[in-house]
Task: inverse folding
């Protein structure tokens, strides 16, 4: 992606890393990015910052649409706390934590399409591969909360297992063992944020016969944090059955953290549906027939996935990254015609994104990104409680 100043005589392309540094600097004003950002401004963008206002103001006036990002966050100096957004996707954590007064100081997401959505909404291009030292080097030294909905992977049994896990002396000397969770641990150990706020799939506890979860908890405790976890279904706040594991870990172990309660009637899918949905979302005869045949066979055999017409008075099934392929997890019944898929805006609503969230331009990317995302109101409610503890302890 490239960000260019409005003045066409200065139009240049920046590398991904330069774009990330520059946009992080513009949005956060953080000292971590200052020198490199100014170097890019002077030497690459050829803007003179020596005797005018500071580089940030110059850049703000040069970049065409800085003020038009819907979620650029609190102004520097006005934040109540700071956080970083790892495995950021499209910023489900960010939108929730910013709403509580948090300033995001660093984001990382390597998927180009998600980076684009992220930029369009927050004005910041996330850094890329978080496993790389040259990317980690841009994480500001101090921040309060590390947020991450990290991919779930088994730990290598050769290196580390629940039974022979040896703690700091051994396990952490080998961060290249290939599990992204090691990167979270490495960052937490180095930067010592007050809180780790993590999200993962429901079956994290049973993943790899329990090995994965045991190691995660053990490692977090070994680097000096408390560890509380729970599984929450999003359906009391958004009309979607989405069960996820949430983990909250405090550096100050005297803090007693209780997850908020998520009670109340499950929300109804019909409340988030758009009217006048274009015909393109109606599935073809071939696809609908295929769904019905496969569903019948699978039901008879008692295995496999089934395609269902959604009950509009209940929450939808879990939105998954592959939903866009054939929509089988949630088909909306229609009078006198085949059912239709959810629209991207409906997917955004199922995950609790605000109406002014700028959608990805490609539908395929939108389904993938919302399917991978967190349910924002759930993160927000847990986040609110975390922030209350944090501010009390400050
Ligand atoms: C489960 S999704 C997280 C979604 C996010 N919480 C949200 O609300 O949109 C995990 C994300 O991690 C990203 N990812 C995986 N490996 C990565 C890496 N090495 N560096 C940066 N991002 C990575 C994926 O592209 C994916 O978007």
Result:
């Amino acid at each position: 992606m490239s960000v260019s100043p409005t003045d066409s005589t200065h139009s240049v392309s920046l590398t991904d890393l330069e774009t990330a540094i520059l946009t992080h600097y513009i949005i956060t004003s953080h000292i971590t990015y200052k020198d490199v950002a100014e170097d890019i401004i002077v030497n690459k963008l050829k803007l003179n910052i020596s005797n005018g206002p500071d580089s940030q103001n110059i850049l703000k006036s040069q970049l065409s649409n800085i003020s038009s990002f819907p979620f650029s966050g609190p102004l520097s100096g006005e934040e109540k706390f700071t956080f970083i957004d790892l495995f950021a996707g499209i910023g489900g954590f960010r939108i929730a934590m910013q709403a509580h007064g948090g300033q995001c100081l660093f984001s990382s997401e390597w998927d180009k399409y998600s980076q684009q959505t992220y930029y369009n909404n927050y004005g910041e291009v996330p850094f890329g591969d978080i496993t790389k030292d040259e990317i980690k080097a841009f994480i500001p030294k101090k921040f309060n909360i590390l947020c991450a909905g990290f991919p779930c992977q088994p730990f290598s049994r050769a290196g580390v297992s629940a039974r022979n896990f040896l703690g700091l002396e051994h396990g952490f000397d080998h961060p290249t063992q290939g599990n992204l969770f090691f990167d979270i641990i490495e960052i937490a150990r180095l930067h010592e944020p007050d809180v780790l706020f993590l999200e993962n799939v429901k079956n994290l506890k049973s993943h790899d016969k329990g090995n994965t979860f045991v190691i995660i908890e053990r490692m977090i405790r070994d680097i000096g944090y408390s560890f509380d976890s729970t599984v929450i279904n999003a359906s009391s706040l958004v009309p979607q059955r989405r069960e996820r594991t949430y983990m909250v870990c405090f550096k100050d172990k005297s803090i007693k953290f209780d997850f908020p309660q998520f009670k109340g009637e499950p929300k109804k899918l019909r409340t988030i549906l758009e009217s006048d949905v274009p015909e393109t979302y109606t599935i073809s005869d071939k696809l609908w027939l295929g769904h019905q045949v496969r569903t019948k066979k699978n039901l008879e055999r008692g295995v496999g996935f089934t395609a269902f017409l959604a009950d509009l008075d209940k929450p939808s099934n879990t939105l998954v990254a592959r939903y866009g392929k054939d929509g089988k997890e949630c088909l909306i019944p229609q009078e006198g015609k085949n059912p239709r898929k959810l629209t991207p805006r409906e997917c955004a609503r199922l995950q609790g994104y605000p109406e002014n969230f700028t959608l990805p331009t490609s539908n395929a990317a939108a389904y993938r990104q919302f399917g991978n995302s967190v349910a924002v109101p759930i993160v927000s409610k847990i986040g609110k409680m975390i922030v209350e503890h944090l501010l009390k302890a400050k």
Observations:
- Residues 87-90, 92-93, 108-111, 114, 129-131, 149, 151, 180, 372-374 surround S-adenosylmethionine (CB under 6 Å).
- Residues 2-10, 158-176 have pLDDT under 50 and may be disordered.
